[in-house]
Amino acid sequence: MLSNMTKLKCFVDGKEHIYYCDQDCNSFQVKEALFQFIKYIGQLEDNARIEAEKKQNVVPLDQSEQIQEEAE
Fold first, then answer.
1. What confidence category does residue 11 fall into, taking pLDDT thresholds of 50, 70 and 90?
2. Element spanning 6, H or E
3. How far apart are CA 30 and CA 72, in angstroms?
4. Strand pairing partners for 9?
């Protein structure tokens, strides 16, 4: 099946980014789709930050014993 598509393309730091949509999409629909992409990326970044914070707060068992001995 053939269909006409509109392509939005830009370059960021030498990398090509392309967004395709139906040719009859209005600007509101395009902005809404891009907003949903941004929201999704934000969720990925939030999850990565939370995981990194969890890893920083984990103290290996050997170190936790040393901290308790120093406190006494």
1. very high
2. strand 5-12
3. 62
4. 18
Tell me what the pLDDT averaged over the chain comes to. 86
Residue 64 pLDDT greater than 80, yes or no:
no
Is pLDDT of 21 > 90?
yes
The predicted pLDDT at position 69 comes to 58
Print burial letters for 22-52: b (CB count within 10 Å at least 16), e (below 16): eeeeeeeeeeeeeeeeeeeeeeeeeeeeeee
Q: In the numeric block, which tokens belong to residue 3?
A: 């269909």
Q: How far is CA 23 from CA 4, 14, 56, in A?
A: 6, 27, 48
| The two three-digit tokens of residue 22, written as one number | 């139906």
